Each structure stands twice: as structure tokens, then as C-alpha cells.
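Any chance you could type out a protein's amino acid sequence plus the matching C-alpha cells because I've never seen that pairing?

——
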Amino acid sequence: MKIGCRRARISRRRLVTVKGIVLSTTKPYCSSNNHSCSDGASTSKGEQPRTLTQVIAAAEQSHCLPLTRSEVAEELKKHRIPFEKVAHGDFLRTDCVYCESKHSCFISGSDNSVRCVVCHELTTLEEFLSKASIVASFADKRTTEQKLSEAKRLFFMEHPEDADPDLYDRTNFKSFLNENKTPDKGLYDREIDHPNMKKCAKFPVDPVVQSLWQNSLDINDLALEQNDMKFLLSILGIDRISSETLSRFNIRGCVDKRNRASILYPRYGSYTFSDAFPVGVKVIRKLDDVLKKEVYPNEASQFCGFFGYHLTTSMDRRVVLTTNERDALAVYDATGGVLTFSLPHGRQVDLQILPYLARFEQIFLWFPPQHQDFAREWGYRLDDVRCRLITSSERPIELVRNGGHKDVRGIIAHGAARLRERGFISASDIRDEVKSDLVYSSVRQNGLAQWKRFAPLNKYLQGLRPRELTVLTGGTGFGKTTFLCEYSLDLFTQGIRTLFCSFEMPEVKILKWMLVQFAGVPLYRSDYGSSVDVWLDRFERIKGPLTIMKTSDFREKSVSQIAEVRHSVQSHRSPKLRMTRFP
């Protein structure tokens, strides 16, 4: 099974033109099952140079790219795996097949990686689907065994005399029935131990992190006893952070045998207690007169948690992101507890952590002034609709060191700029509308409804089509209003939601002519006076709702106020017809 790639587009290859020959300057990505990768624009002696169109076609036949999110969704449907689209980001969310957590697995539509934010398993889509198939097969087997066991138990309960006396007596027969009342508890353990099944991937405890953590103490316990620690806190500005905030973030300190002070910033990968082992730490050391930092684990490609992530609660929907721990502490302390994270790799964009931020509806990016370009890149990766960019020339720690706690709160409340201003949209915002326009284009072309009373109009206007304006002109007494009444009545009786606006004729007269046309008899004659109520009852039972504008309420209104009448019918999705009669 080959999952996770499709034919490549040439847009990811850098091309150079030399004397009319298009040459590729990059190596091929991969090879598919039936095609080996080769330079899409290579030429040999005696061959004619190929055009860009030919190069693109060759590339599409010989290269592979990750599946798009829609293609991933199709693969999940084939494997009967339930999923949902994530509101922000190119992800699909499903249940984890490793730790069985609900809605915790994020599948990227960019690179087809699969990351669980609970057990932190990182795998490929191909491996995930293979694992899901194994889990499903064992689940089916377990269900079958349970059904057979239940059927056997019910049979013995109904026919105890059929139990083999060589095997059962009254005592062990009761035990047999009791044991089979509940599913086999040990079956799940046997599933996990299957040779093709991977163990639930918890963060391994790094020995260096464990050693540093065990040999450190709460920073508040060391600050009063060690001069070097006081000096280090003063240099970093952490002495202006409250002891409560330092304890909440579980900041620790240690002093080595040479009395050299160090500060430990813990990183967590889940919501946990403050006394739990972190999955990573950043160490700030004072070596002579120089400050140095170290990060453990030191593998740049390995995700080792966030600073401040353990403070997340299920109610949090807003977060402030900074590039360093000191700014995160300053924001949290000045705002009285606004959730703040420090990004594990600073200003550099790390795609591994995007699933951990998918739950937040509003994200503030407060980066140093010289890193604003990186902040914008982060914002676009996280979805610019929910991101706010803080462009203050001062960092949070600088404001707090100068007593500007109030300034920090004011900047977050009023100084955060939108990455995308109002009035602008992205392709993702109108994705559903574009799809609907393409899928239902034939319906719109042929019309949502056909007239029954005016058959020639169907050939001329193709039926009622949305967003079309039909203008009728003619002199007084030519029958424009009469025609419009029956025109709308034709569609109204078919279930088309109708709004009739007349700025000349009162609404009573409009409805009168509609009722006469609906009945097909001259109700205005005295001979039909007794049947008017009956026809009104029948008219009111028509399935298409009719709304008529009160002429007297709109005669003195401006054009913009009149245009707002559309909101009275905009909340519904069914087809609608607006009839407007101008004097």
C-alpha cells in the first residue's frame, strides 16, 4: 500500500533556461511504483528541446507529492476512520490508534505527517492507516468472540440440562456463566503486544533532563541564600517577576560545585502537575562574566514541549506566544495570568507544534522588534484570521523591569494589529462557496424553478436563477403589477420564498390581486363573497412563505436603508425571489 504522495507539480522545482532548453536544477523527489524519477527536462543529442508544458507533463508523470487534505479525507473514508476538519490550519483531526484518545490525532495536509497531542506519537499517514487496519481487525475479532461467547451463555441459561455433565456441575456452571457476562479484559493487552503493533509513544525521560531536575530546587528557595543566583536573576530581570509566577512556571535553580548559578526553564508536552518531570529544559548559566544557554534534549528535530504549556486548561481559547521564557514570564505576571507560551525554537517556524495550537481561537504574537518578519510568518502558518501581531518597540520583560505592568496590559488589549485587515479574505474563507458554485453550476444555469403559468419564460429566462435582475417597463395601465403578482405567485406556490416590495401600490391591493389569481375566479364580485375566507385559508397554507413590505414604512427611507431589507430573508438558505415594484 503506497500512501502519502501523488503526482508532483513543477511549481516545486526550480527551472533554468539555457539557450532555449529548460533544465531542472534540483534532483527528483521520489519514484512511484511504475515510474522512476529522472530530470524532467533533460535532452540528449539529436533531440529537440522540450517546452515548459512538456517539462511540466513529464514532472507530473514521474514525481510524487503529499496528498492534499481532501485526498487524505478520502483515504480515511476508505478505511472507515471518522474524522473532522480543523477550523484553523491544514489539518484533519481523528482518534489516536496508539493511545485511544479522542480527537487528539492531527493529520497534516501539507506533509501527511500524523501527530497525537496526547501521547505525542509522530508517524506517517501510511503507518497510521496500517496501524488503524490492525486495530480494526482485532476489534472485529473481539466483537465476534464476544458475540459467540454471549450466544453460548444464553444457550446454556435457556437449556442448562444440555450442559455436558463430564465438564459441568452446579458450581462450575455458575462460575462459567458469571465469567462470560463481561468481555474478556485481557484481550486488549494481547492486541497491544501484537508484533505489528507499536507501543503507546510517551515522551522518554532524557537522562540529562532528569539529572538536572533532580539536582535543582525551586528558584524562590535559592534566591535568598546564593549571591550568584541573585546576581543572575538581576541580570535577566527575573527579580522583577513575582515569586508566585515563578512557582507557577516551575522555574528552578541550581548551583554546581564551583558555586556557579544556573536557571532552569522547564518545558512540558501536556497539561500536568507542576511537580512532574518536564520533557525538556533550557538552562541559563553564568560562566565567569558570560551568560550561556543550553537546551536539553539537544536534538533540534525532536519536539520537547513548550514553556508554560502545563498551565493550559480546557477553557483556554486565547494564548500569547513569545520567542523566549523571560518575555513569557513578564506577560503572564503583568496580565495577572493570561496564558503565555514560549516557542521551543524561538523565532524559527516549527511545523511540529502547530497541532498543539489548533485549539486556540485567538493568538497574540509578541516577538522582539527585530523578529517581526518571523512573527508574520508564524501568523500565516497559524491562520492569519485568528492571529494578532504586536509590533511594540519594547519587549515585555523590558516594560516589566521598568515597572510598566500596565503598559503590557494596554498593548495586548489595544496595540495588537490584525494580520489581515477587515474587508480582505483568503481562498480558504470562500472555499465552500466556490465549491458550491462549481458543483451546482448546472442547476443555476437551468434555474432553481420553472414557471408553470408562463411556459415561454422558461425558454427565454431559463427559469428563476439567483442573482439575476429582471426589469419590466411599460406605461400606466399596461399590467406590470398584475403580471408581477402572478409571476411571483407562480413561484410562490412552488415553495420559493418570496419578498414582495412595492413603493407605489399598498400591500392590501397586492395581496388582493394575488388571491384572485390564485383562486382563478373574480372574488371581488358579490357572488363570491362567501368563499373569500375559504380561499384565504387555502392561500395561507401554501408551502412557500410570502413576505410583503409595508409601503407606508419605507416610502420615506433612504436607498441604503431600503437595501438593508435583504437581511430579513438572508438567514435562510432556500431559494428566494425578491419582487420590487417602483413607482
